Amino acid sequence: MEIIAIAAISLDGLITRHAQEGTGFASPEDGQFFRQALQTFDCSLMGRRTYKVSRERILANLSPERLRIVRTHHPEVFAADALQERLEFTSAPLSEILDDLRARGKRRCAVLGGTSIYSECLQNNWMDELWVTLEPLGFGSGKRLLEGELSVRFSLKSLEHLSPDTLLLKYKLLRDAVR
Ligand SMILES: NC(=O)c1ccc[n+]([C@@H]2O[C@H](COP(=O)([O-])OP(=O)(O)OC[C@H]3O[C@@H](n4cnc5c(N)ncnc54)[C@H](OP(=O)(O)O)[C@@H]3O)[C@@H](O)[C@H]2O)c1
Predict the structure, then answer these.
(1) Which CATH code of 3.30.390.50, 3.30.1300.10, 3.40.430.10, 3.50.50.60 fits the domain covering 2-19+27-177?
(2) What CA–CA distances, in Å, run from 32 to 28, 72, 168?
(3) Does the pLDDT at position 177 exceed 80?
(4) Ligand 1: distance of its center to the CA of 118 in Å?
């Protein structure tokens, strides 16, 4: 199963503007790219905070063609939102979540953040590609794209202007260069 992480970041590598939850800072062009890109995945994985911010939109767009998995230590809290094969909540270790997706025949997984899940995937060499939309913004404070002690290297696969100011950079993880 191919595992691709997708994030919108500021020029200083932050995925939130200060303490504001969500990706309200991202351009409409990124929003359009993101929605279209998601159509090409048969599953996605996100942390509880990321889910909470987009809950309404996710619930309005549930589809049997795209299983969404949300990571939380308290899946029982979300029992009313859960729908088998469309929207599931789990406290299982990430390795088990990914094995389970593979066992269900999933072929392409979008990792939608936030920081902890991106970092854990990289820490364990579980990411094939990282797609970042680079917005022409600087925040100074906010959540970082990555955390912990990582030493990963990517090669640039493609570069696309989503608008005159916004770049979409698709990177491939160079596995031999990890750690
Ligand atoms: N710019 C972007 O592209 C982008 C992308 C993604 C997210 N974001 C933003 O970033 C913010 C959230 O980022 P984040 O890094 O704080 O949060 P996150 O990854 O979305 O969620 C963190 C939560 O995931 C759960 N979790 C983490 N590790 C776990 C584990 N080992 N087992 C079970 N559950 C686990 C915990 O939920 P519980 O507390 O429920 O246990 C934890 O509080 C949001 O504002 C979101 O909108 C931006």
Answers:
(1) 3.40.430.10
(2) 6, 28, 12
(3) no
(4) 10
